[in-house]
Amino acid sequence: MKIAFGCDHAGFVLKDAVTEVIKALGHEMIDCGTYSSERTDYPDYAFKATALVTSGQADRAILICGSGVGMCITANKVKGIRACVCHDSYSAHQAVEHDNLNTLCLGARIIGIATAQEITCSFLSAKFSNGKRHAARLQKVSEIEQMNFK
């Protein structure tokens, strides 16, 4: 898979650890920045990475800021993005399996390196179950999205 990656200055501390997992699992990474711990604005990086997902240039995205919340809010403003803050591996794989999560958001001020790596592995290893029950729910989500993203 191609993974778009973005972080702000607060998320920069986890960047190397997370990108290491992406590459170790054999995925290609598209680095949307940031490239240092100098102060930046998370919406810039969230939009760059999620735009790659919605255009088909990337399969999924991983975004990191201080809490994960700012990245998540921004990502979910992009039509076609299903983003969630996950601070445990169960949520990361379950959200892909049941909700077809395409954007993982992590909080660098909330979790440590080992946990971030474990969550990243769970997210990237999971596959959407595409069962009738989950597909029907996602169709409803899509209909809501169509009504509200004109």
Give a verbal description of the structure:
- It is a single chain.
- The chain is an alpha/beta fold and 150 residues long.
- The chain has a single domain (2-148), classed as 3-Layer(aba) Sandwich (Ribose 5-phosphate Isomerase B, Chain: A).
- Helices cover 49% and strands 16% of the residues.
- Strands 2-1-3-5-4 form a 5-stranded parallel β-sheet, with helices on both faces.
- The N and C termini lie far apart (30 Å).
Q: Layout of helices and strands, plus pairs?
A:
Blueprint: E1 2-7, H1 12-24, E2 28-31, H2 42-54, E3 60-65, H3 69-75, E4 83-85, H4 89-99, E5 103-107, H5 113-125, H6 132-148
Parallel strand pairs: 1-2, 1-3, 3-5, 4-5
* Range of helix content: 40-55%
CATH superfamily: Sugar-phosphate isomerase, RpiB/LacA/LacB
Portion in strands: 15-25%
Our Rg estimate from Cα atoms comes to 14 Å
What's the number of structural domains? 1
What's the CATH topology label? Ribose 5-phosphate Isomerase B, Chain: A
Query: Strands across the major sheet, in which order?
Result: 2-1-3-5-4
- Overall geometry comes to globular
SSE string, helices as H and strands as E:
EHEHEHEHEHH
Return the average pLDDT rounded to an integer: 96
CATH class: Alpha Beta
- Strands, count: 5
Per CATH, which architecture? 3-Layer(aba) Sandwich
Q: What is the number of helices?
A: 6
Poorly predicted segments: none
